[in-house]
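Input structure tokens:
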């Protein structure tokens, strides 16, 4: 049952419902005849209570044009402010969590959505399961007026970005920065500075963004995760990550720090600092 006081984002088959203009929202009235398999709270935005509802694939509201639907990255590309980014990122992660964690890790009985909070509860032993978050570091290594950008094997051709990796069990974020840079491109860094963080819904990363200074070593890509890496200055930048990414925000900050003017599409989030 939908709640008449809430605004809903919807998902079916693990995908949020939205177009290139952004994620679609629905009132309880729009969902009168549509059964929600589950729904979870997203929080209060501008005095409105947002929730994400899960519906069966054939149960979409009539105003949804199936041919216009698009993926999460396209929807994120249309985001113009951090509040909308957070809403979309939260909803996407909750949807993946809903689909991926269906049984209790203690006793294997089915989990169901908690009525009051963002959690699932075991139908047998009452164990609570919260959405999974995986902490990662992302770091822009600097050497004077240049920064180190890398082409990872999973990137689109020609695109370069900052280095990133998961924080391992028992490790600090700072240790992870030093280890990842060494492992991925073979250089040693110093003078780490924490900058900002961002939730990254592919599928449930929490990125801690750092700047670091080059100390020693020659760039040697590991050949597996990183296929190429190099030093770039403002005048020879490669294809950069999209504006909604924390990687782009780190690169933007670097450009400001060295006295360069930001490209017009680079101001997202950074403008608020
Ligand atoms: Zn259980």
């Amino acid at each position: 049952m939908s709640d008449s006081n809430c605004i809903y984002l919807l998902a079916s088959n693990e995908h949020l419902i939205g177009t290139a203009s952004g994620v679609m929202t629905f009132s309880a009235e729009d969902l009168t005849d549509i059964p929600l398999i589950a729904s979870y709270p997203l929080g209060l935005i501008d005095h409105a209570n947002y929730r994400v509802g899960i519906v069966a694939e054939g149960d979409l509201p009539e105003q949804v044009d199936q041919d216009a639907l698009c993926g999460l990255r396209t929807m994120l590309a249309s985001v113009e402010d951090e509040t909308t980014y957070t809403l979309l990122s939260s909803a996407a992660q909750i949807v993946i969590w809903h689909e991926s964690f269906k049984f209790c890790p203690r006793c294997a009985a089915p989990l169901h959505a908690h009525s009051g909070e963002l959690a699932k509860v075991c139908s047998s032993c009452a164990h609570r399961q919260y959405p999974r978050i995986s902490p990662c570091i992302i770091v822009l290594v600097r050497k004077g007026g240049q920064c180190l950008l890398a082409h990872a094997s999973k990137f689109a051709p020609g695109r370069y970005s900052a280095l990133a990796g998961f924080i391992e069990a028992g490790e600090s974020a700072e240790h992870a920065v030093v280890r990842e840079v060494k492992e991925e491109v073979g250089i040693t860094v110093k003078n780490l500075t924490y900058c900002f963080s961002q939730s990254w819904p592919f599928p449930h990363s929490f990125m801690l963004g750092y700047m670091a200074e080059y100390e020693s070593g020659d760039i040697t890509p590991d050949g597996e995760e990183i296929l190429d890496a190099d030093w770039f200055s403002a005048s020879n930048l490669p294809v950069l990550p999209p504006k909604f990414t924390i990687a782009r925000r780190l690169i933007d900050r670097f450009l400001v720090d060295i006295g360069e003017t930001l490209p017009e599409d680079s101001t997202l989030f950074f403008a608020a600092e």
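The pocket of zinc ion is lined by residues 104, 106-107, 109, 122, 124-125, 127 (CB under 6 Å). The chain has a mean pLDDT of 91.
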